[in-house]
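FYI - complex with 4-hydroxy-L-threonine-5-monophosphate, inputs then prediction.
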Amino acid sequence: MTSLPLAVTPGEPAGIGPDLVLQTAADAAWPGGLVAFADPEALARRARELGVMVTLHEWAPGAPLPSSGLPVYPVPLAQPAEAGRPDGANAAATLAALDRAVEAVLAGHCMGLVTGPLSKAVISDGTSRPFSGHTEYLAERAGATGHPVMMLIGGNLRVALVTTHLPLRAVPDAITGDKVIRVVRTTAEALIEDFAIPEPRILVTGLNPHAGEGGHLGHEEQQIIEPALERIRQELGDRAHVEGPVPGDTAFTPRCLREADTVICMYHDQGLAPLKQQAFGGAVNVSLGLPFVRTSVDHGTAFDLAASGNAGGGSFREAIALARTLAANRARATV
Ligand SMILES: NC(=O)c1ccc[n+]([C@@H]2O[C@H](COP(=O)([O-])OP(=O)(O)OC[C@H]3O[C@@H](n4cnc5c(N)ncnc54)[C@H](O)[C@@H]3O)[C@@H](O)[C@H]2O)c1
Ligand SMILES: N[C@H](C(=O)O)[C@H](O)COP(=O)(O)O
């Protein structure tokens, strides 16, 4: 299993995703083991723009990997990709590349999936289907019965989210007891099985300032989060230690973090702002609770940097390394 390649999708073809894939493949120290699902002509053009030398080899699932260069499963774009100028006409092909990569992973031809950044707006506008993010889309594609959890890992933080890509106004209604329980359960199971952390310590934040201040600043803690945590504590028993709800600011103080393996936050920016402040450019996004390993970068499409050669590849390299570790841990856990 761990000798299989990783499937990689460069993501938005006008963004920096193709740069990261090509620069990684051109690195003399690069040991190989990636297959790109992308338009070979678009990759070749970006390589020329970057001045990067990489030989691209057409690849099909099950075929042997070339001894050097970058294997590519071809997924043609509708229009030539212009660096920094996203084109909705390419949105369907960009999603198709993701679909082919997921199929290759599910069919056992690749050990996991590493995704480059997509623009949710370009995909939504270009395909006329709402696209809120890879996490939600992959869950749908993979037919996961569970509900995948978005976790970002960087610096000394692991942050998981109860709600992900939705308007802030919709967040309180989206936080239900069942959802809190599912997210804590999925996070605990992934920490134990994928990350090999026995008895993980999980800190769960509240939604409101000061975790609701005893009901004076909001009722979600008393009415929803506390009862849900009580139920999941009983379910998990000694397998994990769940604390909370703690105020969202206090959760990120050094003392709290020393006592936690993961912080579960109620909404996107409550968790990702502290994480990106600490580790942007070197952190990894991982989808917990999927039937396969999927990691991604911590940054977006950075249209301003596409084809400039100035896109940092730290997060992409970490995403590849973590995908390999998680795949190896999963393989060990299933023998
Ligand atoms: N994994 C993903 O698919 C993913 C993650 C985050 C954002 N996005 C998408 O990206 C788009 C743009 O989002 P944004 O502008 O908020 O964030 P962004 O990460 O694209 O850009 C924020 C800033 O960081 C810089 N930056 C980003 N990546 C960098 C890198 N590798 N090296 C150096 N500098 C880098 C950019 O130049 C910009 O100044 C949105 O459509 C969003 O949905 C996708
Ligand atoms: N929420 C992520 C971030 O801010 O880094 C990002 O948008 C990617 O999410 P998906 O992996 O679901 O596309």
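The radius of gyration is 20 Å. Residues 1-144+293-335 form a domain with the Isopropylmalate Dehydrogenase fold (CATH 3.40.718.10).
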